[in-house]
Design brief:
- This protein is of the alpha+beta class.
- Helix content is about 45%, strand content about 15%.
- The chain has helices at about 5-25, 40-50, 65-80, 110-120, 145-165; strands at about 55-60, 90-95, 100-105, 110, 125-130, 140.
- The strands form two sheets. A four-stranded mixed sheet has the order 2-1-5-6.
- Helix 3 links the parallel strand 1 (about 55-60) and strand 2.
- The longest helix has 25 residues, at about 5-25.
Length: about 170
Amino acid sequence: MACGDRAPVILRSRWRILIAGAVLALGAGPAVAAGITQVTNLSADASKANARDLPLLLVVTREDCGFCSRLKRNVIVPMILSGEYETRVIIRELNIDADARLVDFDGGSVSPLTVAIRYDALFTPTVLLVGPQGQDLDERIIGINNDEMYLFYLDQAIDRAAARIGDGIR
């Protein structure tokens, strides 16, 4: 299949996700955050991603970050609800304000803030695409400006990250 053959399908998919985001924005409010699985065990998430040859997408957020809420509400939760990303990426939220410790890639116990510092991801929201050992698979996406273009660039980043995994970069 040529790249151009996929374009209409990709565009329809993006519009469905954006429409779902608009519907959520009108009525879901704070409950939207419940749609994103919080990071508790990076080692287990990485193992799951590795077994399925998928990248791990980490959405780095803070509690009082309006742009984080917007990204989750308008882009990330609709991606999850669409079901179209289940075979492309494993999505987790890393809230750097959380007090709970989590299991790191090496099995050790760390704070979410420690993980964010390691990735130089203290400006929120930041989206990271990482491999099974926590290695960066693509450039991070920092902030959010335009929801539709954000999804476009995120889709491209997911594809590049998946290609790196497919090429044996683990």
